[in-house]
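Go through this chain.

——
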Amino acid sequence: MPRLALYALVVCVLAVTAAVVSFVQGTWLGIVWVLLAGVSSNMAWYYHRRGTNVTR
């Protein structure tokens, strides 16, 4: 797995954790964390696919 994909996956997991904590505490800031998790998930998928399908 490429390094950027791994970093994006870590950010995604941390954002999901922050969203859960925010919603449990009753704040609506979790929506921002959910959006960040979605973006970082797409980045992880993109960099993973880009790193495994390298054509030279």
